[in-house]
Design a protein that fits this description.
It comes from Micromonospora halophytica. This is Serine phosphatase RsbU, regulator of sigma subunit. By secondary structure, the protein is α+β, with helices and mostly antiparallel strands. Helix content is 34%, strand content 26%.
């Protein structure tokens, strides 16, 4: 019997970047005698799973999002769907390093054994990694993910994001950006390197392309410092100086910078007039009070100080921008006063990847389903526990 995952991996490495789905389809039909193979990708809002093949069928996304496909995507576990004709559909998540891209459907003419289900799952992992790499070479998969045209500002913001989730043995991290197709300045960024998670969340100012350009300048300045080995203080100060000398204090960016040591759960933080940081521990939502320092770019040569706190296994951190916390639709009290804490508590049985969507949906409901008046970012970090010496 052929090693199916290895054979598909070789085929994907030799495939053109825009033909990964067709390559997977041919390989699984040949090696597993599959009667049907489909790849579905989650849209920017994660409101449905949409087919890469047969995209001319508008109802396909709705159908794919219902029932077993949604269970597979949400649980990140294989799901079997036995059909009346004796066929069986295997749904497996298409996920790379914790980023949920979509789901793979493989229909067989008979019920599969556990080994076959495992092989299909490995194929989905190989496909996910290939799709991540191919995004730099083709627009095909991005087109499948968007349900409407993005504004220029949103196009810039989505290209700047690191992803929508990442998994590590010590944590699960996820973020969501809204309104997905017109978002301007709010943003998040992260990197995992040498036993440390670095997370930044920006509460952008302004709207449209001007806001996106300011965010891009800020994020790339912090990345430049981080990739040169600089810590949180160096990242904040380089970004602040870069913004100031570009805008002379007329523009500034409220930013929260966090560095989590994966071996200990120790968190170092720089609060530069930042978004709001809240901890959920044992069902209680508590703001983490940090010394609020000047936003990045307000004055020349601003200096920043680091504060520290500890996480314990089971802790959940939420970071939300002002577009979430301070939202006051129809003259109501701010969403962050009470309603947001209720929505956060309601996520206690959900992983971080689902929790960000729940808080965002509750925000939309608070707005009575009307458009958000401001950009909104929700980032959720589930601390699972120390990962051992060196964070490896």
């Amino acid at each position: 019997m052929p090693d199916v995952p290895a054979a598909v991996s070789r085929a994907l490495r030799g495939a053109p970047p825009d033909q990964l789905v067709e390559t997977t389809d041919r390989a699984l039909r040949s090696m597993l005698a599959a009667s049907r193979v489909e790849v579905f990708l989650a849209d920017y809002r994660i409101s449905g799973l949409w087919p890469v093949l047969g995209t001319q069928l508008p109802e396909a996304g709705f159908l794919a999002c219902a029932g077993v496909a949604q269970r597979c995507f949400s649980s990140q576990q294989p799901v079997l769907d036995a059909r009346d004709d004796g066929h069986c559909r295997i749904w497996v998540p298409v996920t790379a390093w914790g980023e949920r891209l979509g789901a793979l459907l493989v229909e067989l003419t008979a019920a599969p054994d556990a080994a076959t289900v495992g092989e299909v799952g490995e194929v989905a992992g190989e496909l996910a990694t290939a799709l991540r790499a191919a995004d730099r070479e083709t627009d095909r998969y991005r087109r499948a993910r968007r349900r409407e045209r993005l504004s220029m500002a949103a196009e810039m913001q989505w290209d700047l994001l690191p992803g929508r989730s990442v998994r590590h043995e010590a944590f699960l991290l996820a973020g969501q950006l809204e309104p997905a197709y017109t978002v301007g300045g709010d943003h998040f960024d992260w990197a995992v390197d040498d036993g440390r998670l670095t997370l930044t969340v920006l509460n952008g100012t302004g709207t449209g392309i001007a806001a996106s350009l300011l965010t891009a300048l800020t994020v790339n300045a912090m990345r430049n410092a981080r990739r040169s080995g600089g810590g949180l203080v160096e990242q904040a100060e380089l970004a602040s100086d870069t913004i100031f000398y570009q805008h002379r204090g007329r523009r500034h960016v409220a930013t929260l910078l966090l560095a989590v040591e994966t071996a200990t759960g120790r968190v170092r933080a720089v609060d530069a007039g930042s978004p709001h940081l809240l901890r959920v521990r044992g069902g209680t939502v508590t703001p983490i009070e940090l010394e609020r320092q000047l936003p990045l770019g307000m004055f020349a040569e601003t200096r920043y100080a680091v504060q520290e706190f500890d996480l314990v296994p089971g802790d959940r951190l939420f970071v939300v921008s002002d577009g979430v916390y301070a939202a006051q639709p129809g003259g109501q009290e701010a969403y962050g006063e009470r309603a947001m804490a209720r929505s956060m508590r309601s996520t206690r049985l959900q992983p971080a990847t689902e929790a960000v969507g729940t808080v965002m949906r509750e925000l939309f409901a608070y707005h009575a389903e009307t458009d958000l008046r401001d950009d909104a970012v929700v980032v959720c970090l589930d601390w699972l526990g120390a990962s051992g010496p060196g964070g490896r």
